[in-house]
Amino acid sequence: MTDVQPKSTHAVPGDPGALVVVDNVSHTYGSGSTAHNAIRNLAFSVQPREFVSIVGPSGAGKTTLLRTLAGLLSPSSGGVWVEGKRISGVPDDMAMVFQDYSRSLLPWLSVEKNVAFPLGGSKHSTAERHEIVRESLEAVGLDGFGKRYPWQLSGGMQQRVAIARALAYRPKLLLMDEPFASVDAQTREGLEDLVLQIRDRYDMTILFVTHDIDESVYLANRVLVLSRPPAHIVEDLRIELPEPRDQITTRENPDFVHLRSRVARLVHGGTPEG
Ligand code: ADP
Question: Lower Cβ count inside 10 Å, N or C end of the chain?
Answer without folding.
Answer: C
